[in-house]
Amino acid sequence: MSLRPIAGIRTAQPHIEGAGVKLHRAFGFQDPSELDPFLLFDDFRNENPEDYLRGFPWHPHRGIETITYVLSGTVEHGDSLGNRGTLGAGDVQWMTAGSGILHQEMPAGNAQGQMHGFQLWGNLPSGQKMCAPRYQDVKGTEIPEVIDDDGTRVKVITGEFWGKRGPVDGIAADPQYLDIHVPAGVKKTFRIDTYRRAFAYVFEGAAAFADASAPQGVLLEKEVAGQEVNIRDMSGNRSLIRFGTGDEITLQAGPEGVRFLLISGAPIEEPVAWHGPIVMNTQAELQQAFRELRNGTFIKPAH
After folding, report:
1. 3-state secondary structure of 153
2. Is the pLDDT of residue 223 over 90?
3. What percent of the chain is modeled with pLDDT above 90?
4. Which residues, in sequence order, are bridge partners of residue 40?
5. Nearest to 199 by CA among 180, 223, 217
6. Is the pLDDT of residue 220 over 50?
7. How many CB atoms lie within 10 A of CB 48?
8. CA–CA dist 207, 131 (Å, integer)
């Protein structure tokens, strides 16, 4: 077994998207090779309806997949093919935009006005960029959860983990998408296939993530809840942790426990031509997509 080194830790930054939705962006519109096959990750979390109700009106996508995971409130969605639906708390939508789709997403809060969810963009390889669009809408009740003896809980959205397989399938990057809660003070190790790029995103509590590059003998020094933890500072709310190559990560939860997403996928390693919600391989393909948007031929007929 080899512990993955920490390639970087950053805090998601405030950002405004759509028609004025206030959110925090952990990564996106930077170096697309950094977390290949993933392109963008947004945390939209608000308690003031004025910060999110204007939503994400009609906009196009081509060449990518968008993954929406709702924790609180609801998101109503619709598209140019006539699909309609609502995502509630705990639900997931995995949309393969493929050759192109126009859609909108309109969030609404719960009874207390709270809205919380995540959106991840995954790239598509060149051979699938012009595939037919499709949706996988998954209710929270369909997502398996495994509970370990120490109280660790893992929801398996996609991929296989601890003998459970998530309900989302047929995804290009063969991703693993886990929602993990580790109780206070518990030290835990999670396996990740070596060939995958991986990151963690902390959204409740805090944890210290072990770093394989720390000098031998000082890897575990500080104390939290009376137990040893990694010498690095605790990573708390809205922290993104990027990992290098290896087949496991180790962390120790802080005094309030920690809840985080652990996401990994097989890198595509292809050229990226990217502008806004459209991601292709070449500038010529990108220009063609915007030309089709202007002349009304963006949406392709079903085969």
Report:
1. strand
2. no
3. 80
4. 121
5. 180
6. no
7. 12
8. 40
